[in-house]
Design goal:
alpha/beta, six-stranded mixed sheet, 14-stranded mixed sheet, 25 strands, single chain
């Protein structure tokens, strides 16, 4: 099985002078220079004693040296540990503690953390420094060796550590690569760091954001439009929250395709984007932290009948499962198995909740409710256990929220409970409140409340933070 490292080396040989990465300041790095920097870091860190099996906590800005560092550490056989960024310092401390880290790699001001956080005090400290010398001759890692340990978001409890082997990353690359394939030389604006790895292996150019992903609410639509125009971006990989900002721009002519996921992609968002640029190709990707991707949908495949079902509260169409993945629905729950599905957590005690072993097959329980239609396409209904009482019957809030987002003046909405009362919270133009109340009554919802700002997750600002919403809605 060809690893991502080997495909990166092949890309360097084929396109040494092609731009691999454009950072947030507009600085370009070719494939040849990226490989040379990675090799130099590897020499430096090999001298510091980094060997196969070392677990290295990485704290770096999303910039060129982050990807050079990943390649360098993997070439040494080390495992990279990436904390849950949305948790800040608490996530970093948790990552160092539960993974048994042996080193800490940082750039810039992140290096100060080595002296601040007790969990990092005893670790070797690596910095991205170049060392000249002959190429290292080190056997490549096995496909079963752990390449990466990342974490679940922690929205439903303590973040769980997810080990990803080199074989897993290669399988994930093979699942995603067909979605990103293009015969042309693309310039991709990528807001999902993992997809930069896929682009590096594919020999395509990745343009990094010129904003902080931890502060998406502060990004203004004109800044996004200017960056796309300035960098002549042809494709963009953005969470739905940034697609909403994109819909408020003129959408530069160079941009022909948008890939979006990391949160629900609602039909009204697709309508807004294509009302600005009718020929814009939009690819919606559904997945989870443990299995990315699961299914995908191209916007022009959505029929008027599909659109009507979504706006009537029948669920969200997420498309056909990707090739090589097994998908089934058991008691309303979407379950997946395959080479790019996480087979277990670092702590085996976490497996009992989410993993089902059937012979050699390990099924992952997504916790999402769904169903297949007669075309074999997957529909998302909501989260298992999230049902609320509507008109005396249990309903998934998510399906009703999809319908409500299509009402005039609605920006965001969430169906929740306040005590024993089911209530639809709506962010938007509250001059439409009487219409919202009338529409909600037709769905069996008797209470509607207008709110100023819907609380969302810290990772992509694309999922509603329901705990925060319930606190906000308390009388």
């Amino acid at each position: 099985m060809t690893s991502i490292l080997e495909e990166f080396t092949d890309a360097v040989a084929l396109h040494p002078d092609r731009v691999a990465i454009v950072d947030g300041k507009g600085r370009e790095t070719t494939f040849e220079h990226l490989k040379a920097r990675a090799d130099s870091f590897a020499r430096t860190w090999h001298l510091r004693g980094i060997r196969r099996g070392d677990r290295v906590v990485l704290a770096m800005a999303v910039e060129t040296d982050l990807y050079a560092s990943l390649a360098a550490l993997w070439s040494l056989g080390a495992t990279v540990v990436l904390s849950e960024s949305a948790m800040g310092l608490a996530g970093l401390r948790h990552a160092a503690k539960v993974t048994g880290a042996t080193a800490f790699c940082s750039s810039g001001l992140y290096g100060v953390l080595k002296f601040v956080l007790p969990e990092l005090w005893g670790l070797r400290h690596l910095r991205p420094q170049e060392t000249n010398g002959a190429p290292l001759v080190i056997p490549p890692p096995d496909e079963t060796d752990i390449a990466l340990i990342s974490f679940t978001s922690g929205t439903t409890g303590v973040p769980k550590a997810i080990p990803r082997s080199h074989g897993f990353l290669t399988a994930q690359h093979r699942a995603i690569a067909p979605l990103l394939h293009s015969e042309a030389d693309e310039r991709d604006l990528i807001a999902f760091p993992v997809f930069v790895l896929i682009n590096i292996a594919n020999g395509q150019t990745s343009v990094l954001p010129n904003w902080k992903m931890s502060r998406l609410a502060m990004l203004q639509a004109p800044q996004l439009e200017h960056w796309i125009t300035r960098q002549n971006v042809s494709r963009a990989l953005l969470p739905p929250s940034l697609c909403e900002k994109l819909a408020r721009t003129k959408i530069p002519g160079s941009l022909h395709t948008v890939f979006t996921g990391g949160g629900p992609v609602f039909p009204d968002l697709l309508d807004e984007l294509q009302s600005v640029k009718p020929d814009l190709r939009i690819v919606c990707v559904y997945g989870s932290t443990e299995a990315e991707p699961i299914a995908h949908l191209i916007s022009d495949e959505i029929t008027p009948e599909d659109h009507a079902k979504m706006t009537e509260g029948k669920g969200l169409l997420v498309g056909h499962p990707v090739n090589g993945l097994q998908v089934r629905v058991v008691k309303d729950e979407i379950q997946v198995a395959g080479a790019h599905v996480n087979s277990g957590y670092l702590d085996p005690r976490n497996d009992a909740e989410n993993k089902i072993h059937e012979g050699a097959v390990i099924w992952h329980r997504t916790g999402d409710a769904g169903c297949f239609d007669d075309q074999g396409r997957l529909w998302l209904l909501g989260r298992l256990g999230s049902e609320v009482d509507v008109g005396g019957a249990p309903k998934f809030p998510f399906s009703i929220e999809i319908a409500a987002r299509g009402w005039e003046g609605v920006t965001q909405c969430a169906l929740t409970t306040i005590g024993d009362v089911t209530c639809l919270a709506i962010e938007g133009d509250d001059r439409h409140l009487p219409d919202w109340q009338q529409n909600a009554a037709q769905l069996g919802i008797l209470r509607v409340k207008a709110i100023t700002k819907m609380p969302t997750d810290n990772r992509h600002a694309s999922k509603i933070d329901r705990r925060a919403l319930r606190k906000l809605m308390k009388p």
